[in-house]
Amino acid sequence: MKQTLLAIFMASTLAQATESKLWYEKPATRWEQEALPIGNGRLGAMIFGGVERERIQFNEDSLWIGDETDTGAYQAFGDLFIDFDTKGAVTAYRRELDIANAVHTISYAKDGVNFRREYFASHPAGVMVFRMTADKPGALSGAVSLANAHKGTDTADAEGVTIKGSLAGYVHSLSRNRSEYGIALDYEGRALVRHEGGTLEVKDGKLLFKDVNTLTIYLDGGTDYINQRDQKWRGEHPHAAITARLAKAAATPYAELLAAHVRDHESLFGRVAVNLGKTAPEIAKLPTDRRLVAYRGGERVEGKGSMYDGHADDPSLQGVEDPELEALLFQYARYLMIACSRPGDLPANLQGLWNESNNPEWRCDYHANINVQMNYWFVDAANLGECFLPYSEWLNSVIPVRRDETKKHLHVRGWATRWENGIFGGATCPWSMGDAAWLSQNLWDHYAFTRDREFLQTRAYPVFKELCEFWEDSLKEGPGGKLVGPPSKSPEHGPVVAGNSYDQQLVYDLFTNFIEASKDLSVDEAYRAKVEEMRSRLLGPKIGKWGQLQEWAEDLDDPKDQHRHFSHMIAVHPGRQITPTTTPDLAEAAKISMNARGDASTGWSRAWKMCVWARLQDGDRAHRIMSSMIKTSFTPNLLATHPPFQIDANFGYASAVCEMLLQSHAGEIQLLPALPKAWPEGKVTGLCARGGFTVDIEWKDGKVTNYRIAAKEAKPVQVRVNGEAKTINTEVLN
Question: Which of 253, 425, 631, 635 qualifies as a FRET site for 139, CA 20 to 30 Å off?
Fold first, then answer.
């Protein structure tokens, strides 16, 4: 039986490998809608696959303006331009991004010559690599140049082109009454050029290449940012590090450089395979943009489904079924996370790593009232636990700044934050008391999945305890002796009142996480008892007059309210206070509230609705929202749009798929708890469950037919399979 099961899963993995490419028959012209992203965690680029001119707009994760008093904003770095002496029409044009090996390729033919461009962002090498070849010697001629996104200097020499400068004087438009920040990072970027055959010549700030056989460009960039407040956030100038990385990469044979990159990426990406069903061959063979049109049932009207028109869906668009596209979007989110969040780097921001503006929407920041949390909901479930670490490191680095501001303005222990957050600890927009507790929730979930005791002790537990102290000082006794938070509002919504559900549910979650963490570490027994007492007195979820789960302490909910935020659902997802099995009445009230909110919304809001309905174990409703989300919220390059582009919806989509296939927040592992009828047959391998488990599932006719649960060591676990709860002994991970 075990051998048969493993053979089935191996076949599944091999089959899934064919569904890993985004591809197109024409060049990209629009950054947000068509360019394809690559990244190594620190460096990222969007590729504009033109024939005569290649534009590679690139970013580096620490290129930020701001300081300890203002969020500032994430910045564009620059553009690498490669101009080719290629005029006239070409044939057999194809550009593609293979997310299984993280390589972007462009190919075409002209005058009997086949041209190929191969691009990747190497995490092991720390640089991006761009290689151009042709099957005829001397067929490549043109020019290489760098464009500076700021007012620095541009220079060219015999080996490459360089940009450098300072961010002094750059201020985001939302930083009102500011002409400068207290921190101004220095930056540098360099493109190192190597060629085989032909010649290179410096002219007019460009590097001209003529009659070459192969052209290879190594691109790197950086700042003097260091993630340490005691160093005033400034470290060494990036020049020496950039020079060393580029020299080492250029000295490595290209085949070795590429192979190391692919091995590194596959070591993460290859952990999970998913098959949600077969798509009709005539649809599966279409280019990605046309496939998206087919799924919609026609071209989306510009602006339809946007935040500016009420997020309306178009019922006239009756598209084709495409479960392979639905699976591809899940794996694409995993690709994007690997590309923009690696240990030692900064976490994914509102756009992940990719930003073309020096004045981006919402500062391209770490938005703390759902967005940055949503970015990381899925990483551990999708077997990418390493990618979570940048989030933890960033959060711990900015807490001292937040603590000082909290003490100064709120006069309590611990810390709180505001909606908008940067990399120097500065935060702007109104205070939002629950945000910090929500930020800490991700820390607990990482521990719950990994059972990494060192992480809990050093990175998570101190955060939990300090936030418990904040709420110990902030909670007040209300009617009936219940503890309520200070006057506040739901994120971006509602009246300012004491004890709103957003705060109350997050404090319950925080206290629960602290209690369990304290027990696991066998520390702070006396304070644990205090927190347990406070939790027992918290004002809890309430059911209102029309059967809804109340958003506020008072029964103020409007059944016609369809605001994109529905923060009284935190207890359902990503929290664990409300479940259909443990609190059925509250779960039913949550359904009533969600029905009133409706299904249409912005990209990230739809993704959260999918997660909530999955937790309420209504897979068909979750899939219905998924379908409308794909029709309205994804652009041809499969990036999610708020609008504009906002990566949280890509990541939230993946979280919802995980919740539909596997749940582990309620004290047991539930297999296929919210499987929709649209996926009657399928397979998934490598998903993770809380407790340190890896899970494989196969199903047919909506029922589990085979499964495997493994851990580092054999141990009993409760699992629910086809509605039946049982205790099994896990297998041992290889």
Answer: 253
Counting other chains too, the contacts that 699-702 makes at CB distance below 8 Å and 24 or more residues apart are: 699/672, 699/675, 702/672, 702/675, 702/677
Of 11 and 89, which is predicted with more confidence? Answer: 89
Residue 734: per-residue pLDDT: 76
Q: Per-residue DSSP letters for 281-320?
A: HHHHTS-HHHHHHHHHTSPPPTTTTSTTTTT---TT----
The better pLDDT of the pair 15, 406 is held by: 406
- Residue pair 652/574 in contact (Cβ under 8 Å)? The answer is no
The mean pLDDT value for 568-574 works out to: 97
Q: Cα torsion at 355, 360, 362, 367 (round to 10°)?
A: 30
- Rounded CA-CA distance 308/312 in Å is 10
The b-or-e profile of 115-142 (16+ CB within 10 A means b, else e) is bebbbbbbbebbbbbbbbbbeeeebbbb
Q: Is 561 exposed, middle or buried (0-12, 13-18, 19+ CB in 10 A)?
A: middle
Average pLDDT over residues 546-563: 93
Distance CA 154, CA 163 (A): 5
Domain locations in the chain as residue ranges: 1-23+274-340+644-734, 31-269
Q: Which residues on adjacent β-strands are paired with residue 203?
A: 206
User: For residue 732, how many other CB atoms are within 10 A of its CB?
Assistant: 11
* Percentage of the chain lying above the pLDDT 70 cut: 95
Tokens of 565: 């935020």
Burial 711-729 (b: 16+ CB within 10 A, else e): beeeeebebbbeeeeeeee
Q: What percent of the chain has pLDDT over 90?
A: 90
> Quick one: pLDDT band at residue 225, thresholds 50, 70, 90?
very high
| Per-residue model confidence (pLDDT) at position 310 | 35
Predicted local confidence at residue 1, as pLDDT: 30
The residues near 81 (Cβ < 8 Å, ≥ 6 apart) are 53, 54, 55, 56, 143, 144, 145, 146, 147
Tell me if the pTM is above 0.85: yes
| Count of CB atoms situated within 10 Å of the CB of 244 | 12
Q: In what order do the strands lie in the sheet with 716-721?
A: 662-663, 669-671, 716-721, 724-729
Residues 187-224 have pLDDT tens digits of 999 999 999 999 999 999 999 999 999 999 999 999 99
**Which residues, at least 6 apart from 576, have a Cβ–Cβ distance to it below 8 Å?**
509, 512, 665, 666
Hey, what CATH topology would domain 31-269 get?
Beta-galactosidase; Chain A, domain 5 (2.70.98)
**Region for 645 from its dihedrals, namely left if φ exceeds 0, alpha if ψ lies in -120 to 50, beta otherwise:** beta
Output the furthest CA–CA distance in the chain (Å, rounded): 85
Each residue of 492-507: pLDDT tens digit?
Answer: 888 999 999 999 999 9
Could you tell me which residues come within 8 angstroms of residue 539 by beta carbon, excluding any fewer than 6 positions away?
Answer: 478, 482, 483, 484, 499, 504, 553
- Is residue 522 classed as helix, strand or coil in its secondary structure? coil
Rounded Cα distance between 590 and 593, Å, is 5
